[in-house]
Design a protein that fits this description.
Bound molecules: NADP nicotinamide-adenine-dinucleotide phosphate
Protein name: NADP-dependent 3-hydroxy acid dehydrogenase YdfG
CATH class: Alpha Beta
Keywords: Oxidoreductase
Radius of gyration: 17 Å
Strand content: 15-25%
Number of domains: 1
CATH architecture: 3-Layer(aba) Sandwich
Shape: globular
Strand order of the largest sheet: 3-2-1-4-5-6-7
CATH superfamily: NAD(P)-binding Rossmann-like Domain
Largest sheet: 7 strands, parallel
Family: Belongs to the short-chain dehydrogenases/reductases (SDR) family.
InterPro entries: KR_dom, NAD(P)-bd_dom_sf, Sc_DH/Rdtase_CS, SDR_fam
């Protein structure tokens, strides 16, 4: 599917990994990207890089656990570019641990970022999309949103939640005839900073090993996101599972 029209795409968690790769990939083909994350220096550098290459990019320092900061990100997109065509709820963390470690702070953090961050994104972008009767949410779930494993209970729970939230939103927007599309992207192992958040030393070596053995480039997920954006507007790619060929589970 060829890219025919430049879109305004907001990406949360754009300072590294999948978010950064998606920002670069979309900007290279002419989309205007609006980037949010907490690490300002990373965002600044990325925006400069995109602009140097002839693309359009702006950023707003955004912690997705703050509703007002997520709203400010949406406002920046609307003020600068006039509309939000695509909102990518990508920010997330994966501090796997077994329950007996009682890493309750990490459980709460995952709920706040991986679930509430997505909800704040929906709240920030939905009104203007409804008004224009046009838009798309792309929400990052995971293969862990389809099956769980020891040590992955809370992370999986948040990613199952992303799928449930996305599916209900899809159904509501279909009923409302709003033309708003909802896409869940569920990757397997992708080479990013994600495993760095794991503090359970009983689990970390095994996960690092899996990532070293099979993880694919974040650009593959950027390409997947672009593919979902490029589908004709009457067609909604509702969920894409994208794994390394070498990944068994
Ligand atoms: N890599 C994989 O194997 C994989 C597989 C399945 C699903 N995913 C999902 O893909 C998404 C992106 O992860 P990634 O692999 O690209 O990992 P990553 O390299 O660690 O990137 C995570 C991004 O989220 C941002 N972030 C974290 N907490 C945030 C907060 N409170 N507010 C705003 N931004 C926040 C980080 O930026 P700051 O620290 O600057 O805020 C960073 O840009 C996540 O939702 C993850 O669950 C990844």
């Amino acid at each position: 599917m060829a890219h025919t029209e430049s879109k305004v795409v907001v990406i949360t968690g754009a300072s590294s990994g999948i978010g950064e790769a998606t920002a670069k990939f979309l900007a290279e083909r002419g989309d205007k990207v609006v980037l949010g994350a907490r690490r300002e220096q990373r965002l600044q550098k990325l925006v400069e890089e995109i602009k140097r290459a002839g693309g359009s990019a702006i950023y707003h320092v955004t912690d997705v656990t703050s509703r007002s900061e997520v709203e400010a990100l949406a406002k920046l997109a609307l003020d600068e570019y006039g509309q939000i065509d695509v909102w990518v709820n990508n920010a997330g963390l994966m501090p796997h641990s077994t329950f007996d470690k009682l890493k309750v702070d990490e459980w709460e953090r995952m709920v706040d970022v991986n679930i509430k961050g997505v909800l704040y994104g929906i709240a920030a972008a939905l009104p203007s999309m409804r008004e224009r009767k046009s838009g798309q949410f792309i929400n990052l779930s995971s293969v862990a949103g389809h099956k769980t494993h020891p040590g992955g209970g809370v992370y999986s729970g948040t990613k199952y939640a992303v799928r449930a939230i996305s599916e209900a939103l899809r159904q509501e927007e279909a009923v409302a005839q709003s033309n708003i599309r909802v896409t869940i992207v569920s990757p397997g192992a992708v080479a990013t900073e994600l495993p760095n958040s794991i503090t359970d030393q009983d689990l970390k070596p095994g996960i690092d090993q899996l990532y070293e053995a099979v993880a694919i480039s974040a650009t593959r997920i950027a390409e997947t996101i672009a593919f979902a954006i490029d589908a004709p507007v009457d067609t909604s790619l509702n969920e894409i599972i994208v794994r390394p060929t070498m990944q068994q589970v």
